[in-house]
Amino acid sequence: MEVLGEYQINAPRQHVWEALNDPEMLEKCIPGCKSLQHVRDNEFTAMVTAKIGPVQANFNTTLLLEDLNPPESYCLVGKSKAAVGFGSGSAQIHLRDNGKFTSLSYKADLKVGGKLAQVGSRLVLGATKKIADDFFAKFCTELDVAVELKDTNIKENQVSGISVVWVTILGAILALFSLWFLLG
């Protein structure tokens, strides 16, 4: 099944990219996220509790980030398993600069099986869209606060020598996971 979406975010593209690559931000914003762990370079695992129609379960998810083109685009590839079924898919995420705003668009191709498939594609699509909307509502709220604090954090990071690159890479992977899960 194919899922499409677009969101206007009231922040510059670079700020949005950085926030989508911040593991703490993603863990706060992903509905039902219990944990998010960096496994290796472009791979993450997560435990997410989700409810789709009458089915609620804990999903063990593996995410891979591919085709990274900061701060414009990437592809998120993921697999998820739960007692009620499984899912797999990929999502192409694009960030477009619109002055003070950033347009985030995604196109995802998802497959589900088990009890999830029995729930029906219409219900799965509706739940997926609601999860995506909830994620981006929380993301935009958190991003407004993060943008105000960004200059201070950059100065602290430069003084302390903390590697911003590592956090950015980890955040990108987590961001992709969240979008994949939201779409899947």
List the helices and strands and how they pair.
Elements: E1 2-9, H1 13-20, H2 23-29, E2 33-40, E3 43-52, E4 55-69, E5 73-82, E6 85-98, E7 101-114, H3 115-119, H4 121-160, H5 164-183
Q: Your description of this structure?
A:
The chain has 184 residues and is α+β, with helices and mostly antiparallel strands. The chain has a single domain, classed as 2-Layer Sandwich (Alpha-D-Glucose-1,6-Bisphosphate, Chain A, domain 4), CATH 3.30.530. 43% of the residues lie in helices and 43% in strands. The protein has five helices and seven strands, in the order E-H-H-E-E-E-E-E-E-H-H-H. Strands 1-7-6-5-4-3-2 form a seven-stranded antiparallel beta sheet. Strand 2 and strand 3 form a beta hairpin. Helix 1 packs across helix 5 and helix 2 packs antiparallel against helix 4. The longest helix is centred in the last third of the chain and has 40 residues. The relative contact order is 0.27. The C terminus is likely disordered.
Defining traits:
disordered C terminus, alpha+beta, Alpha-D-Glucose-1,6-Bisphosphate, Chain A, domain 4, 7-stranded antiparallel sheet, globular, 184 residues
Helix-strand pattern: EHHEEEEEEHHH
Q: Terminal Cα separation, in Å? A: 9 Å
| Backbone shape | globular
Beta-strand segment tally? 7
Structural Rg: 16 Å
Oligomer: single chain
What kind of sheet is the major sheet? 7 strands, antiparallel
CATH second-level architecture:
2-Layer Sandwich
Concise synopsis of the structure shown:
The chain is α+β, with helices and mostly antiparallel strands. The chain is built from five helices and seven strands; from the N terminus they run E-H-H-E-E-E-E-E-E-H-H-H.
